[in-house]
Amino acid sequence: QVLLQESGPDLVKPSQTLSLTCAVSGASITTSYSYWNWIRQPPGKGLEWMGSIGSDGTTYYSPSLKSHASISRDTSKNQFSLQLRFVTPEDTAQYYCAGGIGGEYWGQGTQVTVSS
Q: In this predicted structure, what is the pLDDT of residue 39?
């Protein structure tokens, strides 16, 4: 069974950096042709793909977030992370990690609120 579990703060102040981690079990983030994604859903809006990291460590970002998002991984822990710098209240959302060869595995999501 493949499980993805997001972890991180539920409240972040504006202008700070949001850091989230996705721990993966039951699958390896280095499996060839797999991609590991961060996706978010702001209140009342649709899903937004933020970026991903491939099995070879190559990163991809949404053009709208590339300037203040970073995705990294720790292969020894089989986990990958998101850093979102200079957050604003518009970054308040349910954040999901998802991945696999076809993106078939999803975490349950974690709610993050940006507020002073």
A: 98
Mean pLDDT, range 86-111, rounded to an integer: 95
Q: Do 113 and 88 meet the contact criterion of CB atoms below 8 Å apart?
A: no
What pLDDT does 4 receive? 98
What ranges in 1-116 are assigned the alpha helix state H?
none
Could you tell me which residues come within 8 angstroms of residue 2 by beta carbon, excluding any fewer than 6 positions away? 24, 25, 26, 27, 100, 105
- What are 87's two structure tokens? 């957050």
Q: Rg (Cα) of the chain, in Å, rounded?
A: 13
Rounded to whole angstroms, how far apart are CA atoms 33 and 39?
Answer: 19
CB 99 within 8 A of CB 4: yes
Give the Cα separation of 16 and 18 in Å (integer). 7
